[in-house]
Every structure is written in C-alpha cells, then in structure tokens.
Amino acid sequence: MNINWYPGHMKVAVDKLKQSLKLVDIVAEVIDARIPLSSRNPVLDDILENKARILILNKADLSDPNQNEKWKRHYEQMDMGVMIVDALNNKDLKSLRKTCEKELVEKRERDKKRNIFDDTIRMMIVGIPNVGKSTIINQIAGRSGARVGNKPGVTKANQWIKSENKIQLLDTPGVLWPKFEDPEVGLNLAFTGAITDNILDTENLALKLIGRLRYYEKNLKERYKIDYDVENTDLEIMQMIAEKRGAILKGGVIDYFKISNTILSEFRKGKIGRITLERI
Ligand code: G4P
Question: How many C-alpha atoms does 82 have within 13 Å on its Cβ side?
C-alpha cells in the first residue's frame, strides 16, 4: 500500500468522516496493539469533539499481553472504553456492546427524558490503514450474516450491518491517515508492515528492528538459537541470525537482504513472539 497524504486528501477524509459521524451514536477507533501510539492519529480527538467513543486495541495475538493491559489502563484513564481484541481469530469482540453501553450512559438518559427507548447502537469504525478495521467489520457481519440495505437519507456507499446484539455498524470504515511527522512513527508503521513506503531500505529497517527488540532479547535468542549480550551490536546480532539461517552468499558473504526480509517477515507474523514496540 502506498500512502501519500497531501493536505487535500486529509481535508476530503475529514469531511467524509464528519458526514458519517452524524449518522452514528458512537465511534470505535481501531489501533494496532503492537504500536498503540504510532497507529493513532490525534486529529481524531478534534474531529470527534464530544462524540462517545471506544478504543479497540487489535492484533492482540501479536502484541505483548503485559503491555496490552498497561495500555488498556492508560487509555481508560483518558476516559475511553477500551477493548483488547484479536479480530483475525474473532476473539474478544463479544463484549463490544457492553463496552459501548458504558460510554452511552449520558445519551441513554437524554433519550429517556425525550421518551426514546431505542437501544440500538449505531456505530462506525475508524482508524489508519492496516489496523484491522475491515477484519473487525467482517467478523461482525459474518456473525450475524446480515448486511442491511440502504436506509433513507444514507448514501449508497453507506450500508448498515446489523449485529446480533443490536449494534448497527456502518460498513464503510473511516480512514485516518498515519501521522508521519515523527520519524519514529514512520519506523513503527514500517516495522509492522502498515506502510510499505520505503522509509528505509530493508536492511536498515531490519537492523533498527533488532535494536528495538533489545527488550525482547529472550525471544530473539530462542527464535534464532543465538547467544549475545549488551556488548554485541545490532549488526553482529543480524550476522549471527544470518549464519544460523544460512543466509550466506557465495564466498561466505552474508546475504543481508535475505536475512533482513526473514527477520521483518517473522516479526510481522508473530513468529518472534508477542511483541509491543511502544511503552508508556
Ligand atoms: P484495515 O481495514 O484497517 O486496512 O485492515 P484489514 O482489516 O485489511 O487488516 C490488515 C491486515 O491485518 C490483514 O492481513 C488482516 O488479516 C490482518 N489482521 C487484522 N486483524 C488482525 C488480528 O487481530 N491479528 C492478526 N494477526 N492480524 C490481523 P493481510 O490480509 O495479510 O493483509 P496484509 O498484511 O497483506 O496487508
């Protein structure tokens, strides 16, 4: 995926989002639990104003369970309902209704005063590309099997998905752009494969990832059956991995491109273990 966000694109995205917001009671922002800061765009805070919201930390099958809990508490303190989810395996989406309901207490009270007793929750999913928005929508749609037809006043692009627990979901997610200004954010998005723009060449990206995996030394040692200590440089660790994996060219030269691709791909698939790259 090639993401080029120019101010024009951003304006169109914001306008579209604002239009869709009018149709829903609550917004579910999806982020990648491996990079709980870099996969957010704070612009959403401005767009949402007082709209009820929840935060879904997705890809929990790939992220560090201890860190998941820490991030959950962190975001809960910021007054958001937070869920830790593995959408790929349809895990822990069941509490969606309960999490939303907590955020809708004020709305329910307002409705009651106006004699409105409709407890349907109209919701939309938003987030930057690749965090799992479509996967979540498909899991919800798949469970109930129902994509509802158009509603009056809703453009054809917006269809509603009815879930079994009286949640109606807009089937088109709101797409936010990643926040690129900080180079660290760009790196994190590249590590997880959220962007494939060439921020760095493959070898340098893999080398930087090894540096980030110092927190997860045990995982790296076990996965590649290597041994090293703090004295060893990231490059030396990469060379050890290459030797173990036989990524050696003719003449005994290390095939850095090959081993870099292996490391990046295995990290993205969770083969090095459940890893969170950002700490509070
Ligand atoms: P998006 O709508 O936010 O852009 O994301 P989408 O659902 O398309 O998901 C992006 C990739 O992330 C998909 O992989 C999807 O299977 C994967 N994914 C979504 N949720 C989870 C999860 O909870 N755990 C794991 N492990 N993966 C998840 P893909 O089809 O292989 O796409 P790509 O990686 O080739 O881009």
Answer: 20
Taking CA atoms only, the protein residue closest to ligand 1 atom 24 is 59
The residue contributing the CA closest to ligand 1 atom 25 is 59
Q: What is the reported pTM?
A: 0.91
Nearest to 266 by CA among 232, 235, 233, 238: 238
Give CA separation, 70 vs 57, 85, 96, 145, in Å. 12, 15, 20, 35
Main-chain phi, psi angles of 242, to 5 degrees: -60, -40
Q: What is the DSSP string of 40-101?
A: --THHHHHHTT-EEEEEEE-TTTS-HHHHHHHHHHHHHTT-EEEE-BGGGTBS-TTHHHHHH
pLDDT bin (cut points 50, 70, 90) of residue 197 is low
pLDDT digits (tens, 9 = 90+) for 209-259: 999 999 999 999 999 999 999 999 999 999 999 999 999 999 999 999 999
Residue 125 CB–ligand 1 contact under 6 Å: no
The Cα–Cα gap between 177 and 256 comes to 32
Question: 248: Cβ below 6 Å to ligand 1?
Answer: no
Main-chain dihedrals φ then ψ at residue 265, nearest 5 degrees? -65, -40
130 lines ligand 1 (CB under 6 A): yes
Q: Is the Cβ atom of 131 under 6 angstroms away from ligand 1?
A: yes
